[in-house]
Amino acid sequence: MSQADIRHTIEIRLNGESLTVEAPATVASLVVTRKPRPPFAVEVNKELVRRPQYEALALNDGDVVEIVTLVGGG
Amino acid sequence: MSMDPTPLKIGSQEFRSRLFVGTGKYETYESMRECLEASRCEVVTVAVRRERLFDAQNRSLLDFIDTKRYTILPNTAGCFTAEDAVRVARLGRDILEQLENPGAQWVKLEVLHDKKTLLPDPVGTLEATRTLIQDGFQVLVYSSDDPATACRLKEAGATSVMPAGSPIGSGQGVLNPNNIRIILEMLKDGDPDYPVIVDAGVGTASDVTVAMELGADGVLLNTGIAHAKNAAAMARAMAHALDAGYLAFRAGRIPKKLYATASSPTEGAIANQ
Fold first, then answer.
1. CB under 8 Å to B187, separation ≥6 — which residues?
2. Residue A49 has what pLDDT?
3. Which of B103, B119, B206, B220 is 20 to 30 A distant from B166 in Cα terms?
4. pLDDT digits over A20-53, tens only?
5. Which domain holds residue A7?
6. CATH 3.20.20.70 for domain B8-251
7. B24 near A CB under 8 A
8. What is the pLDDT of residues B249-262, one digit of tens each?
9. Domain count, chain A
10. Would you call B46 and A43 a contact, using CB atoms and an 8 Å cutoff?
11. Where are the alpha helices (DSSP H) in chain A?
């Protein structure tokens, strides 16, 4: 792996698993790659991210991201 | 159709059915849909989890719930701290807002103490209740059957307090009817329409009737239907049991007495008295 590659990727935790993504990355770009089935909600570092913020919110190395949906429950 | 002539008012919403049914643990999504229908419920609970939990055919829960028909009540099940429960509530609201479902303003708050009993942690529950109310939620809060805790949660501004009949999924029914009765008396004192819903522990139809005969405004259950041998038949039984208990409570039962009182007149009896 070259120096350029290292500089241009970041390592995040997505839904409990580590994931390498190309930088710069935003919530919006992650959603495009991951393609979660709607409806879903996104949290970065334990804070809810609302839809209008997806484009602007940059992801940084070490960020903890959760993408959640609704499942059966009592 | 429910036989209940008085709608149940919870926060800003009104319902004809007083049965709230969970969507977890059914053998198939088809079975769940059939059970919800048979139970005549109008409110269904759901959980918030990491995405990609589809079944083998790539189907998800929402393919089987008519979101125009049911109010979806998202829970914070599986949370053991106030902080996590608040996070999950906010995520759930974000999803329900996308669905334009009235449940978006609601949360069924659970802050649990431990994995074995799944009993609520009263301190964390109160803390999360306060935070979520400040954040604009109508909080329907799962509680133990302790009257003091129930009072504190109502004072904090909970939209409904939901005491457990017995531990979640235990099927033990209403273990302490006296506590439920005291909770009802305290929470409805000067506020008769304050909704109290018995949540958790229902094992069979008579448990629902008992809760309603005590004067509860509704019952929330999941496992009692989902794990019954014939789930849809049990869902139907639960709906009837709820109506029976509700009507009996409104009708006003006779007091319990130690000795017998004859139903036939003593006057005119030819036998020696």
1. B150, B151, B154, B161, B194, B196
2. 98
3. B103
4. 999 999 999 999 999 899 999 999 999 999 999 9
5. 3-68
6. yes
7. yes
8. 999 999 999 999 99
9. 1
10. no
11. 3-7, 27-34
